[in-house]
Amino acid sequence: MPPLLLRLLPYAKAYWKEIAIVSLALMVFGKMQYDHRLMVRLYEEQATALQEQIDGLNAIHEEELRLKEEALESYRTTLETLEKNYVEEQERNNRTITERRRTIEKQFSQNKEELANEIISSFNFEYVPM
After folding, report:
1. How many CA atoms lie within 13 A of 81 on its CB side?
2. What angle do CA 123, 128, 130 make, to 5 degrees?
């Protein structure tokens, strides 16, 4: 045995409890530092993962907004087309009605009996002379 150990042996026997307490305190402190470093690393990894999730959700949200805008623009375009077609059809119907009215007035202005027969055949009305 080395001479230094031989000289320290009587002190170690006398103060073994204190030495054990200090050794255990150092081990507990070391374990606490290790656990703290693990918790900090875990926190950083979790913060990174959450930020990636937030970025992914933001990207999905932006895509949804873009699709919504496209759908709204398509809706507006379709609505404008339908309104235009409606106005054109309404004008066409008004012209047709006016032309039909003129034709009927010319055709049946002198012959009321023929007008009555036309109304009966067109609308299935029953003509009652006054």
Report:
1. 6
2. 135
% residues pLDDT > 70 (the chain):
95
127: pLDDT strictly greater than 80: no
Distance CA 47, CA 45 (A): 5
- The count of domains in the chain is 1
Rounded Cα–Cα distance for residues 117 and 127 (Å): 8
Torsion-angle region of 124 (φ positive above 0: left; ψ -120 to 50: alpha; else: beta):
left
Q: Is residue 72 part of a domain?
A: yes
Global confidence as pTM:
0.52
Residue 68 lies inside a defined structural domain of this protein: yes
The domain in which residue 76 lies consists of 3-123
